[in-house]
UniProtKB/TrEMBL annotation:
Alphabetical list of NCBIfam families matching this protein: PRK02645.1
Protein name: NAD kinase
HAMAP family recorded: NAD_kinase
GO CC annotations on file: cytoplasm
Encoding gene per record: nadK
A single MF term (Gene Ontology): NAD+ kinase activity
Family: Belongs to the NAD kinase family.
One Pfam family linked to the record: NAD_kinase
Keywords of this entry: ATP-binding, Cytoplasm, Kinase, NAD, NADP, Nucleotide-binding, Transferase
Signal peptide region: none
Keyword tRNA-binding attributed: no
Binding site for NAD(+): D67, G68, N152, E153, R163, H182, D184
One Gene Ontology term from the biological process aspect of the record: NAD+ metabolic process
């Protein structure tokens, strides 16, 4: 990998992350790399400044934080094809990151990157657009719609500070009405996101090596409402049915992207962009990650398998 320009984003409020960022920045600059560094979090978004300052030419991104910091980086950097190295510095679960214990020797990491001794894992992303179909809303229907990216999930659900709002939504897949849902909302997830909000809503776990879309209702007011998994090239449309509900929102990876009103719909499909993650581990196991991160315990009684070598 030829690294001329790099960015480092560390978790806001993490002194350990800031110390790591400063150390890594000095090491990379000593190798002739131009480095921009900044915090990332709920109230800090360094990526627009990074992208404009480096004229959209970023060779490498180092993310020092947990899954939230990594998701934010992916949403901004996937369109530019920037490879991301994520290290769990100050984070929690760390499904998408390397453990900090594995990355203590940062000088060796730079040597591996510069000599191409690493792998790139590409993860499917989703793209969403809020489309106005009712001219009475006073919006320009023919105007190009802003698109939103996510690595984990798109979610359509209300946001209200003073009451628990029930969402009434209609699900359409490739122009065919599938069902109507009354509950807390709908999750449309990638395989990467299936171990996040989706699994918490009793949805399916999908291997990240697959391309698929998982649709999961959140607390539906019907025992027959179930999650479904569909092929990745289909378009998922979600229509709000309540006329007087102004609290409905589109969320991308847990961040509010847009309001949704009656007379609009959300179209969600697989994005042409993919998140690119640098993998340094040589013995990574997705199933081991599931056992460790989700605390799988298996059967209460363990039996030896004497037929296994």
């Amino acid at each position: 990998m030829n690294i001329r320009k790099a960015i480092i984003a560390y978790k806001s409020g993490s002194q350990v992350g800031k110390d790591w960022a400063e150390r890594c920045s000095c090491e990379l600059e000593s190798l002739g790399v131009k480095v921009l560094m900044g915090p990332t979090g709920a109230n800090d978004n360094p990526y627009p400044v990074f992208i404009e300052s480096l004229h959209r030419e970023i060779d490498f991104a180092l993310i020092l934080g947990g899954d939230g910091a990594t998701l934010g980086a992916a949403r901004y950097l996937a369109r530019l094809g920037v490879p991301i190295l994520a290290i769990n510095v100050g984070g929690h679960l760390g499904f998408l990151t390397h453990a900090i214990e594995e990355c203590q020797n940062t000088q060796e990491i730079w040597e591996r990157l510069l000599s191409d001794r690493f792998a790139i894992e590409r993860r499917m992303m989703l793209e969403a657009k809020v489309i106005t179909v009712d001219k009475c809303l006073g919006m320009n229907i023919s105007q190009p719609q802003e698109s939103f990216l996510c690595l984990n999930e798109m979610c359509v659900k209300p946001a209200s500070p003073d009451r628990m709002v029930t969402a009434s939504l209609e699900l359409e897949i490739d122009g065919e009405i599938v069902d109507q849902y009354h509950g807390d909302g709908l999750i449309v997830a990638t395989p990467t996101g299936s171990t996040s909000y989706t699994v918490a809503a009793n949805g399916p776990i999908v291997h990240p090596g697959m391309h698929a879309i998982a649709i999961t209702p959140i607390c539906p007011l019907s025992l027959s409402s179930r999650a479904i998994v569909i092929p990745p090239k289909l378009t998922v449309s979600i229509w709000p049915l309540s006329i007087d509900d102004l609290s409905l929102k589109l969320w991308t990876d847990g961040v509010i992207a847009s309001s949704i009103f009656h007379g609009q719909k959300v179209d969600i499909r697989m994005s042409e962009h993919q998140a690119q993650f640098i993998v340094l581990r040589e013995d990574y196991s997705y199933y081991q990650a599931l056992r460790q991160k989700l605390l799988w315990t298996g059967a209460r009684v363990r039996y030896p398998n004497q037929n296994r070598d």
